[in-house]
Amino acid sequence: MELDERKEKILKAIIQTYLETGEPVGSRTISKYSDLNLSSATIRNEMSDLEELGYIIQPHTSAGRIPSDKGYRFYVDQIIREKDSQVSQMQELMIQRVDRVELLLKQMAQILANNTNYATLVSGPSYHQTKLKFIQLSRVESHKLLIVVVVEGNIIRNSFITTDEELSDEEILNLNILLNNSLNGLTIREINLGVIAKLKEQAGAHRQVVEMVLNEVAVAVEAQDEDLQIYTSGATNIFKYPELSDTQRASELISTLEQKELLKGLFDEQNEPSASDSEIQVYIGDETPVRTMKDCSVVTANYVLGEGLRGTIGIIGPKRMDYEKVVGTLRTVVSQLNETFGK
Amino acid sequence: MELDERKEKILKAIIQTYLETGEPVGSRTISKYSDLNLSSATIRNEMSDLEELGYIIQPHTSAGRIPSDKGYRFYVDQIIREKDSQVSQMQELMIQRVDRVELLLKQMAQILANNTNYATLVSGPSYHQTKLKFIQLSRVESHKLLIVVVVEGNIIRNSFITTDEELSDEEILNLNILLNNSLNGLTIREINLGVIAKLKEQAGAHRQVVEMVLNEVAVAVEAQDEDLQIYTSGATNIFKYPELSDTQRASELISTLEQKELLKGLFDEQNEPSASDSEIQVYIGDETPVRTMKDCSVVTANYVLGEGLRGTIGIIGPKRMDYEKVVGTLRTVVSQLNETFGK
DNA sequence: ATTAGCACTCCTTTCCCAAGAGTGCTAACA
DNA sequence: TGTTAGCACTCTTGGGAAAGGAGTGCTAAT
Fold first, then answer.
1. How many domains is chain A built from?
2. Which domain holds residue A283?
3. Nearest-CA distance from A189 to chain B in Å?
4. Is the residue at A78 inside a domain?
5. How many CA atoms lie within 13 A of B225 on its CB side?
6. Tell me: the pLDDT tens digits for B76-115?
7. How many Cβ atoms from other residues are within 10 Å of residue B222's Cβ?
8. Are residues A136 and A258 in the same domain?
């Protein structure tokens, strides 16, 4: 048995109604639904079929039906297909042109949370493919050097190293020139042993300092990648959905959002080359890589800032989230981001 | 009528028992309490007195008693007085000596949350009194300069400015020397019009750049002060306490912790000169400056890193929090911090 | 001054019942 | 053959009522 047009219509009606109310929807409700003029009895028969096909579920014998994960999946695929062409504009989204990408991302998470009434999370860009733009050593205390590393996208990392000997201003200047000449324009991956060896050779007496600098660069970038910057916002929005807001579930969910490392799973998968760049990913219920979110749906989208500088935006809500709006919003935001920074 | 010794003992016993169980405590429970050999009837009489004095409350006629805010206050004052001398050490608190204060603070919030099972928040240091240590201008793109500002405590601020004209390496070098000579060692407050005027004069043709730099310094520091860095952790710990974990209250509380700006009230008060530096402040119930926390207790402590570089650590839990432990822990942590960074 | 005992109060839990919502099935109809 | 009306049935939900429990206040005895 396949989904004929009427079944599709009924299924859509059921899901849409459920999205609004959050309550199981009965046959009578649908029969009053404007488009199709059918009695509740007929609807009941169709619903029975739809249930057999696995698109809807009865929470208990004498309740209405709610969409199953499969039902949501049908609905979402439909939406994504329809929306695919029209990237609606969204002027209200006031992205102030900020130089600091990270602040922007933080703001983004907040704006999204406010706009959608769901919890959001935004992962900071990962660095592996990123080109170094600028390195600067400066003496801050007699034996303490400040290292500033700027990478594509104008993202800045700072750290300190402590040197054995005190370096003169001139030595520092020379080191700076050397480091910038050797490393600028390279991605982290391209800084391989060959480059490093050459660099050390040229550094002469200060090879030790160079080593420390490289180490710090690596550590800064690695650390960045390890405990991936993740910004979350609107966690308490989940309290707006009764099906998620019982103590047990809410506690678990919010905990998960607090412990950012648990969220990695959501991004790793996204970052695989298989997923095409701007594609939007929807995880429904059990499909999600993060176990504590099995009663939620998660929609994620990748953004690309510069070459190899990419991250992910995610929205977490109840299974009955407004997929239409969420997918649309994400699409807009991502294309905004790409436009603003993609050059 | 005053609190005689026996009343004090009973009151303490009631509060301690309630701290553990979270349930109203009855006279029989106390009469079994080892130290005092009194029958439940006697206890009842005393409890009746204590209630009249306002130290304890009956949630309803036939329930045991729970401490009133006044009761908690009595208990807390007691604790603080007792603990005041012995600053217990706490080796397990593994503060890795990190140069980046902010990372440290973030970690601190987490460690505290894990240790205490309450929600924690740590405010980043405020800058107004802070001495500038180091300023560095560097060209990143042809018309774009990176400004790095390091202040006491090795806290780093970065920002970008865009210049009209392209500056030569030499010009930048000179500006750097000028800026550092003029500003290093000054606090933000000390950079007044006189200093600025002199600086501009010396800058000659580049007064415009200097102006922008000063502006950025101010903005960076101000912005820092405005949306005060606040790190929170362990928000979901509140679910461990039934009296706070009903949907309504939990939602409110966690929301408050998420919107950091709502927490400012907690720090402003602390930062007034009236409160002596390392003093520990306990807000019980309605005493708290943040309205949504009126069913909680909040314990805060100030830390001091360098001259004028101070912040606050707070712990938020149910009124029946383990004040003894919390006050002790905070005292330790603060003295640790002071020791590590106070030079 | 302390204690034992007892009646009383009030919360909480449980159970039951009625109401309501929705289904599945059967039979009738176009 | 597809659609519909009707009805019995199921299951949840909400509101009491009743039972149980915990704890008090008071009185009388020690």
1. 3
2. 92-126+228-342
3. 21
4. no
5. 16
6. 888 777 655 444 433 333 333 344 567 777 878 888 888 8
7. 13
8. no
